[in-house]
Amino acid sequence: MRKSSVVSLLMAGAVVLSACERSGEAEVNRALQDLNVVDESNLNDVMLTVADPNEAVTYFTRASASEPDRLEFRRGLAKSLIRADRPREALAAWEAVVAHPEANAEDSVDHADALIRANRWDEAEVVLDSIPPTHETYRRYRLEAMIADSNEDWSEADTFYEIAAGLTTKPASVLNNWGYSKLTRGDFVGAERLFVEAIRNDETLFTAKNNLMLARGAQRNYELPVVPMSQTERAQLLHTLALAAIKQNDLTIGRGLLNEAIATHPQHFEEAVRSLRALEANVAN
């Protein structure tokens, strides 16, 4: 009788122990799953930011093939293809994203961006028009401004550029785009003001500095503005000013600016040398 009781107690203990082990095992598995999600999320972020774009494409291609229903993998692939400068493939990837039942308005913005990169402006406009007006983001209005520019709807472009600039803490790029829009319209004073504002927000934005030279040159103002620049940048900006002067048929000023650019550059400035030779050859003829 005692032996039977002991056996029963041992069996009961084994069952309890087994249940405890299974419970502990389940908790460990859950913890590992949570850890895997965190690690996977971190890896996704790394792939979308600092990883080589083509490596990221490979990673998200494999992940999407392994789990085709996971929207974050589809998004990652589409974004990586944009980073890798493969717009046609990216467009197909974004079409797959927006077809997913969990896709959101920002996915549609990315889809419109991919359409613009593929030079399909009319389709991009249709996509943007389909996004609810309550979805107000910097990227959405930046694209709206670009489409208005392509349609030469200057009033609407100005409105969208202004909204976009107000929706970001780093407006230099959109201010530069807005300035270039003004430049193409012949509003050189307005363009100059926007390029200066862009540089004020990002002193490293050389494109805005170069565009500023074009705006000043178009006004026959060939003085370098007071903006931060390295010695190499100074030489390059003098070269841009020289070309603007030559375009206005101010040849003597253009020659002087080219010579100054060549003398300023810390190394041999082949591009400016070629421009000077071409100018002197044309004058001689």
Automatic annotation (TrEMBL):
**Which segments cross the bilayer?**
none
Q: Which Gene3D superfamilies match?
A: Tetratricopeptide repeat domain (1.25.40.10)
Annotated organism of origin: Histidinibacterium lentulum
List, alphabetically, the InterPro entries matched: TPR-like_helical_dom_sf
Q: Which SUPFAM superfamilies match?
A: TPR-like
Name of the featured protein: Tetratricopeptide repeat protein
Q: Which UniProt keywords apply?
A: Signal
Q: Which residues form the signal peptide?
A: 1-19
Highest taxon, organism lineage: Bacteria
